[in-house]
Input
Amino acid sequence: MTKLYVGNLPFTATEEAVNALFSKHGTVEKVSMITDRETGRPRGFGFVEMSSADAARAMQALNGTDFEGRPLKVNEAQERERSGGGNRGGGARRY
Output
């Protein structure tokens, strides 16, 4: 199974629309659209999981193509290292 990063998605894109787009190139196992934790609004990117062969085909076919007026960025997702950094609610905030 390969996880693809799909960037530059329009904020109006739905999981169903992304699934339909990628299904043209193979079997989609899972679509995850990323939303902002605080607002719940889409962040303009997501992930699609497909078999390795299907993912390679989809990446080749869809990277740079127009989707609802925006050129998609499609590549193999990189595992993100979990770090302890960042402000997770502790400490003072200045408004």
Q: What stands out?
A: The CA atoms of residues 14 and 89 lie 30 Å apart. The longest helix spans residues 52-62. The beta strands are 2-7, 28-35, 42-50, 66-67, 70-71, 73-76.
